[in-house]
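Hi,

I'm pasting everything inline rather than attaching a file, because the server keeps stripping attachments. The sequence lines come first, and each chain or strand is labelled.
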Amino acid sequence: MSAVVAEHDDHHDHHDHGPEKGLLRWIITTNHKDIGTLYLVFALAMFFLGGAMALVIRAELFEPGLQFVEPQFFNSMTTMHALIMVFGAVMPAFVGLANWMIPLMIGAPDMALPRMNNMSFWLLVAGALLLASTLFMEGGAPASGWTLYPPLVLQTGAALPFAIFSVHLLGISSIMGAINIIATIFNMRAPGMTLMKMPLFVWTWLITAFLLIAIMPVFAGAVTMLLTDRFFDTSFFDAAGGGDPVLYQHIFWFFGHPEVYVMILPTFGVASTIIPVFARKPLFGYSSMVYATASIAFLSFIVWAHHMFTVGMPVAGELYFMYATMLIAIPTGVKVFNWTATMWKGSMTFETPMLFSIAFVVLFTMGGFTGLMMSVAPSDFQYHDTYFIVAHFHYTLVPASIFILMAAAYFWLPKWTGNMYDEKLGQLHFWLSAISVNVLFFPQHFLGLAGMPRRIPDYAVQFADWNMVSSIGAFVFGFSQLLFLYIVIKTIRGGTGEEVTSEVWEDASKHSLEWTLPSPLPYHTFTTPPKEIPTEHF
Amino acid sequence: MSTNAYYIPHKATWPIIGTVGLMMTLAGFANLLNGSSIGPAMMIMGFVVFIIMLAGWFTLQSVESESGMYSTQVGISYRMGMMWFIFSEVMFFAVFFGTLWYTRNLSVPWLGGFGDGPGRATHETLWPAFEAMWPTNGPGEIGGEYEPMGAWGLPFLNTLILLTSGVTCTWAHHGLLAKNRDQLIKGLIATVALGFLFVGFQAIEYHEAYTEMGLTLGSGIYGSTFFMLTGFHGFHVCVGAIILSVVLFRSWKGHFKPENHFAFEAAAWYWHFVDVVWLGLFVFVYMM
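And the predicted assembly:
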């Protein structure tokens, strides 16, 4: 079944340049592995920064009353936590994985546009710096929520133009990255690697990249109108001038709904890569996975106003967006059943990447179901802007996207570094995370159903108990991630010392090309395309 | 073409320079908007760095291209890059066209008491006397009295100019393919000249709007959508004309071959895209 390239030894073909010496290497690099590493390290740093903000929020909410921070600062924390986690942590982490893995998985020597690849990364840093700088400005960081709704956001102090330009920079960075990924996948595949033979991670990123190019300019346009409304007398979002603040919400969510899928589609791709390896079976329903991903991406463009059921819309609009949203459950269900069927009767082992992946399947499904609950417009009138929605999207982001990012790190770190991580510590990290994440977010469903609004620093006493439980979960979860940091650093610096084969995981080379290369990976790979490609997933 | 021949540069200094330039430009602009005195200087410095980056990076690319370092496969990557970049621009303009469509067909009628959208309640509670119509500067008559821009004066002339420039651009391309350098250069000169002529007429149109018609960016939703759409388009015409000027310069220096002229193609695609956007503007902003 498998057709694997002859194993390389540690000596790599050396007519090529190695890395530059010193710090300069990282600034001017065009190597997809270097840039992937930069993205991943940056994302991890932002994950801890955004996480620290989340802990400020949970510390304040530990008890009713105002304890630690001013309400304005609290609102800045919810806003910045979201912006940093979305644009600084989750998206860059997946772009980092794309940089590392797509050329390896399709047998390409590098990304299609290596110089632009470098600029994508540094523009991300520039955008993040502008955003972070708003924390120290007069009037504080934006406090309107990450959606930046007018008219509230127009009351932001000196931070407003910086936040807006930060969005522009992050957008340019994402578009460049996405263009690069599309050009790489369409133009750089090894001979024989037809589209329907690509690993699913490559497929999901192809579709994600299309989403990014379609939506980032939309967000840029929306915030540009905020800028002109504030500084250049326009009336886009001002009813007195004939504009409409609800227009902003439509534009934002036309961007925002595909945007949340930008964070989940690559998650699906990684899960579809890891689960078959540890189930020792081909992925169940490969082509249906591809079509489901494409369907989800298509649907993401026509459901945006389900974020706005209570804002006010003609009844026909409410009904349309309700039914269209429910449709998403079908392709998503296909995926969940496929992952389950992949594991069915597999000879499974439960190493850390697999544990995180299984937790993803279970917990993401829960997040999906609460989404289905909220797609019902009349029910959403009850859930809207409560902790129920907070619980919903955190279930789809933390034990889904973040867990899969953890799984990916454990899965590929041995390949990248040539060192094995400590399996015991990895499993400890998993169990601490999996339990605490539920302690953290599950009670928020109850709070939301009972009517606790989101984005408030204080609340009525009847919400006290579950908030306390949630905050305890938050601190356990947050500090457990320091263990992850420790494991990663330890792995990079030698790991357990055991020999890592090129395959790392049993029979992994049947699934994807990267496992046919030596561990650690040489600086340049596939300078000549592979002769044969794995065919396990058919 | 085997992947062996795929050119992968091993160091890139322009991206970080460009990033610093762009970040300074935007941070400077933000400071300027906040009334901070360091804003303008920072913005200008950043912009100069950014322009130096563009000049340096594109010079590097054209030198590499002319020395034959780009295989067919590299050329395909560049073409894909340009196509998807133009697609992102399409989406950017779609936001403003969408804004125009939404306000004209939905939110302004709601504000005038029609339909069951959210603006209906605003009509009943705040401005029951407001009657929906287009153009409008809203129930608050923001920006005061103004005269809407007609379609059949300068805008129509500009339509003819841009359409003609599309023809001259294609004529230049035919010259390039037929190894007729003279036709290539003449076609490009005409295209660039028509492009800048368009911008000049638009400047006159804006001047009239501001000084004689009372029509400004602050003239309610009509002024906002009018100037935002035509302004961003005009900016794109400028950028396109500058790109074509560079292509003209390179043609004059003897660059490009019938089988290898990505820069020309990219510039031409961009120019046609800008052209199509204008046709949309002419119909939806000026005529309807």
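The radius of gyration of chain B is 23 Å.

If the labels don't parse on your end, tell me and I'll reformat.
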